[in-house]
Amino acid sequence: MSEPSPGAAGSTYASAGVDIEAGDRAVELMKEWVKKATRPEVVGGLGGFAGLFDASALKRYERPLLASATDGVGTKVDLARRMGVYDTIGRDLVGMVVDDLVVCGAEPLFMTDYICVGKVYPERVAAIVKGIAEGCALAGCALVGGETAEHPGLLGADEFDVAGAGTGVVEADRVLGADRIRTGDAVIAMESSGLHSNGYSLVRHVLFDRAGWSLDREVPELGRTLGEELLEPTRIYSLDCLALTRTTEVHAFSHITGGGLANNLARVIPDRLHAVVDRSTWTPGPVFGLVKAAGSVERAELEKTLNMGVGMIAVVPGESVDVALATLADRGVDAWVSGEIVERTTEHAEAVSMIGDYAS
């Protein structure tokens, strides 16, 4: 092995591309945002090796079940990078996690995040954490910790990705799901804020690769630029869903993410029953029509990839519909009855059928 030349400087972590000082600066900048995403049960502050949550708060439960979920944001992060907008993508991350938790009726308690970057730009990392903290506040959960990792050589200096994990709690005898659903139940759809955080590989291929559109293109149908539409944060439904469980009987929720409405709703439909969803009860937002037209995408392909304007489904007894809709309206959530639960027959071989055409 050859010896280093005389006077040559030794290798350092910084010369390998990792800037510890920049990481420390990012932590300082994000502290003010993390303080806003807390709950009374959080013990200590940011900076420890682990986040602490006072579990004695669970003593009020007869049999508390902890629910956990983890997710990311997918290729939507590339649009945030290209636009130089970093303070919204965290809300997408929170929505993807907490709205999976609430499907079983669990109250989200806390989250942790993982941010991987090619190079730490403190202000950029702090902006991402700001979005995560704002999302946690909207979800009623705490952000108890996280990790920022710098991966020079693996990621480009401007590249990054985010992931998160969340924990919630639900009383054992109040767990929601397929076993509660009955014939005659109503399927209530809650409007999405747009594409949310799924299907962006298709959207990017269609709008950028095929149609040649740019992010700063003004789109009259959208009333804003394409980039602004595509970065619209995922709607967070957790507190709305929990409000429903307090005001009326709910049998199940379904978070409409990758796979679309039919595939996600099917996950909570028991074998003996069938959900009929009527497209004519709503009009998908204009962004869905743009993707369809720009890429000549078939409806079936759109429906198994995008949420088509519905971000969450609640399955409730028929007698609970009026209260459920009123509760959601009071919370500013546009919702409507989109279908019903019937007995499964040979005519309805699958768990969910979509009928009719979307309202124009």
TrEMBL record:
Residues in PurM-like C-terminal domain copies: 183-346
Q: What is its main location?
A: cytoplasm
Q: Which domain of life is it from?
A: Bacteria
Record-linked InterPro entries: PurM-like_C_dom, PurM-like_C_sf, PurM-like_N, PurM-like_N_sf, PurM_cligase
Enzyme nomenclature, EC number? 6.3.3.1
**Molecular function terms from GO:** ATP binding; phosphoribosylamine-glycine ligase activity; phosphoribosylformylglycinamidine cyclo-ligase activity
Question: Known CDD domains for this protein?
Answer: PurM (cd02196)
Q: Where in the cell is it found?
A: Cytoplasm
A Gene Ontology cellular-component term: cytosol
Pathway assignment reads: Purine metabolism; IMP biosynthesis via de novo pathway; 5-amino-1-(5-phospho-D-ribosyl)imidazole from N(2)-formyl-N(1)-(5-phospho-D-ribosyl)glycinamide: step 2/2
Q: Which residues form the PurM-like N-terminal domain?
A: 62-170
Which GO terms of type biological process are on file? Answer: 'de novo' IMP biosynthetic process; adenine biosynthetic process
One matching Pfam family? AIRS
Q: Which UniProt keywords apply?
A: ATP-binding, Cytoplasm, Ligase, Nucleotide-binding, Purine biosynthesis
| Reactions that this protein is recorded to catalyse | 2-formamido-N(1)-(5-O-phospho-beta-D-ribosyl)acetamidine + ATP = 5-amino-1-(5-phospho-beta-D-ribosyl)imidazole + ADP + phosphate + H(+)
* Protein family per UniProt: Belongs to the AIR synthase family.
User: Per its record, how is this protein called by name?
Assistant: Phosphoribosylformylglycinamidine cyclo-ligase
Q: Which organism is it from?
A: Streptomyces bingchenggensis (strain BCW-1)
